[in-house]
Structures are given as structure tokens and as C-alpha cells.
Amino acid sequence: MAEIHGEGIGQGVAQGPVALMSAPLEAPTDAPSTRTPDEEKQAVAAAVSATAAELNARGERAGGSAQDVLEAQAMMAEDPTLLEQVHERIDQGATAEYAVHVAFAAFAEQLKALGGYLGERAADLADVAQRVIAHLRGVQAPGVPDPGHPFVLVAADLAPADTALLDLDQVLAVVTTDGGPTSHTAILAREKGIVAVVGTGEASFTEGETVIVDAANDAVVTDPTDEQLAEAAERAAARAAAAAAPVTPGALADGTAVPLLANLGSPDGAAEALELGAEGVGLFRTEFLFLSSDEAPSVESQKESYRRLLEAFAGKKVVVRVLDAGADKPLPFLTDVEEENPALGRRGIRALQHREQILRDQLTALAQADAETDADLWVMAPMVATVDETEYFTSLAKELGLKTTGVMVEVPSSALLAEEILRHADFASIGTNDLVQYTMAADRLLGSVAHLQSPWHPAALRLIKMVADGGAVNGKPVGVCGEAAADPLLAVVLAGLGVQTLSMSPSALADVRAELARHTLEDARRIAQAALAASNADSAKSAARAAA
Amino acid sequence: MATRTVTIASSHGLHARPAKLFSEAAKNSGQTVTIAKGDGAPVNAASILGVISLGANTGDQVTLTVEGDDAEGVLDQLATMLETDADAE
Predict the structure, then answer these.
(1) Which of chain A's termini has less CB crowding within 10 Å, N or C?
(2) Do A79 and B17 touch (CB under 8 A)?
């Protein structure tokens, strides 16, 4: 056996045969063909129709909007205009592979030049070209493998397009060599409760070999012994049993309540969150209402979505974050065209303040939905950096009829000013992903700086403590709604630092609930002290483990 | 040969799903169909890439040309598609 270390996502463990994500194909060369043009054209026809059939079949399995995208890709593979251009190049003596490569690339360039939506289709076209070339070469197409049985997916990292198509009944676990705890893979794994270890670095796996993916221990075990396999199976079964246990409100062993809330991105997730024991919503992201449109949605249509959400959580707390646009989520009607460095640009509350009508409409829709329902609605602003922004947002929200108004703490300045900020805000919610990104000056989506992105870093923990202390001084509640809350041991640390509520992907609720119940408030404070005193993220985690 | 000029109704222009549905219908008609935006050059309507690269948006005028046995019938069907907001369904 051998152990490969990475960053475990969640607390799961799984075992199964490895299926490797195929690497991108090498570009074909322009060496002249040794076959006749007719032979090359026949090869293209066969490859194109096989590709289209494969994409259509995938579409049928995926269903929904993914099916439309895949069927459109199938049509691109068989596109007559494109085929004419492929034939033209073959007639000039090119190989089928090279003709396909060049013709598709030329069209992709044309789409890219048109920009916007059409520019994005260029990537779809490049994917189709790779599939056709793979068929011509008789090799596996790049992308998520489909070995026909459940497997452990091993990849460098997964693109959003790959994750959208993952068949969760087939994927036992995911291992990535690149990518940190905030990569797309990690976010998907948390959301869907997939067992995952990310960022293993240079590690080699063999197609079909059996491995144990042990997220709880941040490791992948290759060539496992029978005892290890049995132990892993036992732990997986115990965890499944714990998840099936009746849900109780989040609390420490001494009875100190730590309400466990859900992070949601649309009202559709409400039923599942409640089933998993969410005691309310700690972060409702409203971007989904805005992302698909060219202009801001009307007050009326927004109100309808909020009403659906609030009705599902009648009698419970629901914290809604107003639109968080900019950086990785630009919106045509809100964000400025080009920013050199959008993560540090006019995003979050800065963008809303600049286009105040959008904020006013959203707050009005929320107030109207609140008036018609029985949930306890709290509203907060994203990316608040100053006391002035806090005053601006909370007073505007109050003016428009909202009762409980607060801020998200994602920028280190607002943690440093927490005491002053919480004099004006009714509450604060800490977004740990961005707080870590800005504290460590490490892009949360960049694998090469993944080692700096841990919410366990004492620099982040100390800022979180400042916010909790600022809340205590003013008698205002402080919660955490970043992925940090989904890490069971870190959740205990957060409770020990004085954080009162924890909000996470619903799939993490069971593990966090179970871990909190193992420690008293006094224990949690001691564990938090041990982590705070460490000098880096790894030692903070080890110190917490030793103290727990 | 039959020709008609229609206005695009789909709220997202002739992209994505509407482009796919339109191109599919043009192909399934079995006849030679072209589409041109404004005074631009006509492209093969059965070519999804040709259709989306027109970059036709809501309110743009496009000209359809059909050659074949049931040119008018096919023209009716395709024109109706373009004049309906498929995304609103």
C-alpha cells in the first residue's frame, strides 16, 4: 500500500476502481495524407456520425438544459458548412485529422471574434473537434470517462462543463492532482456530497486499480490491504447510518445551541435542505435571478422567487444576500466593462451603490415578499469593506421596509473594523472563501496558490475571532456561511471562537451536527485556542486534532 | 423558389436553443433552405454554425429562401418558428 496526500473535501470515504480522465489530444500535424481524398472523406463521415450519436446519447442521459447543449454539439459535428470546408482541405491533400482540426479551429476563431454568447460556443466547438479527432485516431475522447461501471474519477481538475455531466450514480469518488479546496471540483463535491480528495500534486494512478479515497484523512490509499478495504467499507457504512439518523438542532455536547443553516442558490433546494435538518437559511444567493438575463429582473418576478423561498421556511430564519456581481460573476447591466483586476474592482456592494436602482428594486421585492410570508427574513450586503458602506446599506434597507439588516465580512478591513461595523449592522456573516482569498492575497480559483487558501490559516482564524468579539461587544450575532463551516472540526473551532450560527451546503449538515455534539463549549474554546496559536494552516489543523 | 423576410421574435435572438430548433427543422425539411441577415450573404439554414454565426438578435430581419417541392409550406413552418418566442415556452 501507499498513501498519497491531498486535501479531503468532507468527511467521507469510498473505494473503487480508478478511471482516468483522458488528457487533451495532441494537435494533428500538416503532414500530407497517404490515402486518397475519398478514403479520408469516408473516415471523416464515420467519425462525425459516431461523434454525433455519442453526443445525442449523452444528451438523452443528461436531460434538461444539458440535453439541448449536447444535441446542439451533435449538430455542430455534422454541420454541412463545416464539412464542406473539411472536404476542401482533404482535396488539397490534408489528412482527415488535420482537415477537421483546421476547419473547426477556423470556425471557432470566427465565433470568438463575434464575442459574447457566440464566443462561448467556440469552446463547445473545440470540444466537438477533439471528439471527432479521437474517433479518427481510434482513441478515447478527452473528458469524463464512461467505463460502464461505478468508478473513482481521477483528473487534473474538472471544468464546469465536465462537472455538469458527471453521473453521480457512477462516480464513487473524485481525486484531482491540481486544484485547491475552492476549485470547481471541491465546490461540486461539497454541494453533492461526493467523496473527494483534491490537489494531490504529481501522483500517478493506473486505470482500473482499486483505491481508497479517504477525505476525512486527506489521503488516497493505493494498493490497499484487505483490512484497509474492510475498515473503509465499515466507516462508509457508519457514516451512511449517521446521515440516516433522526436530525436534531445543532448543539454542542453541553447543550449550547449552534443553529445549523443551509447555503442555497435557488428556492429549488429548499425541500432537500429541510429534509437534511437545516434550521433555516444562512446564505441565500440571489445571483441566479440575474445571471441569465441581459437586464435586471422586475420587482414582481423577483418577489415571486423570494416568496417561494420564504414560504418553504415559514417560522425559520432566512438570510438573503443581495446581488453579488462582479469578479467571477460579471453582469452586463451592472458591472463595468473591463477591469484590470476584477476581484479588487467595483464588485458586491460597490457595484450596487453605483447602480442603486437595482439594489432598491431588489430590497423592495424582498420587503414585499416578507410582508406576505412568515419566515424571519434577514438581508445582508456582500463585499462590505467600510463602516460607511455598512451605514449606507443598512439604512437604505430599513428605509425600504426590511427589519433585520447586516453585512457580509469577506474583506479583511471589515473584520478589523468589526466592532464599529456591528454598531450599525444588526448582524454579520463571515464569507470565509473570500476572506481567505483577500487575507492571503491568493486567488481562490488558482491551483498554484492553493496552499495559501485554507480557512484553517491562523491569519483567517484571528480575523474571524475579531468579528465574533465585535459582535459580542455590541450584542449582535455573528455567523459563518463560507465553506469553512462545512468542515466538522473547523466548525467546532468556529463555535469556540464565538461564532453563533453555521451555514453550509446541506450535504455537510449531518457530519457537522455529529461533530459538534462531541464537544462542550469549553472544549471548543480550548480547541480554538490551540488552532489560533499555530503558525500555519497545517499546524493549526493538527493542533486542533490533538486538542479535540 | 420562395422567399420571405421575417423578424426574429426569440428573446435571445437566433442563438442557442432557437438556433438549434430552427436548423434542425431546416434540415428535416429535406429542401434547400438559406437564411440571410439584412443585406448579408445567405448561409445554409441546415448549418447550425452558419445560423448562429449570423449573430441575429431579437428584432433583426432575416430573409429565408426555400427551393424544393413544397417551398411555400416549408417557408410557412420556418417563418412561424422565427416569429415565435421559443424561449418563452
Answers:
(1) N
(2) no
Regarding whether A325 and A430 lie in a shared domain, the answer is yes
Say if A26 falls within a structural domain.
no
Q: Domain segments of chain B: what residues?
A: 2-88
Residues of A in contact with B25 (CB under 8 A): none
Helices (H), A10-95: 37-62, 64-77, 80-91
User: A66 and A159, same structural domain?
Assistant: no
Residue A353 sits in the same domain as residue A272: yes
CATH of the domain at A504: 3.20.20.60
pLDDT above 70 covers a percentage of chain A that reads 94
Nearest CA distance, A67 vs chain B (angstrom): 10
Measured on CA atoms in the order A290, A293, A295, A301, is the torsion positive or negative? negative
Q: Kindly determine whether residue B52 and residue A118, on different chains, have CB atoms separated by under 8 Å.
A: yes
Helix, coil or strand: residue A540: helix
Beta strand A195-198 pairing with A7-9: antiparallel
Give the single-character DSSP code of A541.
H
Q: Is B29 on the interface with A (CB under 8 A)?
A: no
Position A315, amino acid:
G
Q: Which of A201, A220, A242 is the last residue of a domain?
A: A242
Decide if B47 and A82 are in contact by the 8 Å CB cutoff.
yes
Q: Would you call A68 and B16 a contact, using CB atoms and an 8 Å cutoff?
A: yes
Residue labelled with grid coordinates 469524463: A144
Neighbours of B58 (CB within 10 A): 15
Could you report the predicted ipTM of this complex, rounded to two decimals?
0.90
- Nearest Cα residue to B87 out of A306, A161, A294, A214: A294
CATH pick for B2-88 out of 1.10.150.450, 3.10.105.10, 3.30.450.20, 3.30.1340.10: 3.30.1340.10
Q: Which of A137, A155, A185 is the last residue of a domain?
A: A137
Instruction: Give domain status of residue A27, yes or no.
Output: no
* pTM (whole model) above 0.80: no
The span from the CA of A458 to the CA of A435, in Å, is 12
Bridge partners for A314 per DSSP: none
Q: Is A275 on the interface with B (CB under 8 A)?
A: no
Residue type, A217: N
How many separate domains does chain A show? 3
- For residue A308, report the phi and psi dihedrals to the nearest 5 degrees: -60, -45
Q: In which domain, by residue range, is A186 found?
A: 2-21+144-242
Catalytic residues of B: 15
Q: What is the CATH number of the domain that holds A149?
A: 3.50.30.10
**Is any Cβ of chain A less than 8 angstroms from the Cβ of B25?**
no
The pLDDT averaged over each successive group of 10 residues in chain A (548 residues) is 87 92 83 91 95 87 74 91 94 94 90 73 82 90 82 84 74 88 75 87 88 93 95 90 81 96 91 92 90 80 93 96 77 70 88 92 97 96 97 97 97 98 98 94 78 91 98 97 89 98 92 92 97 95 92
Q: Is residue A29 part of a domain?
A: no
Q: Do the bridges between strand A13-20 and strand B2-7 make them parallel or antiparallel, or are there none, so unpaired?
A: unpaired
A107 interfaces chain B, CB cutoff of 8 Å: yes
Element (H, E) at A301: helix A299-312
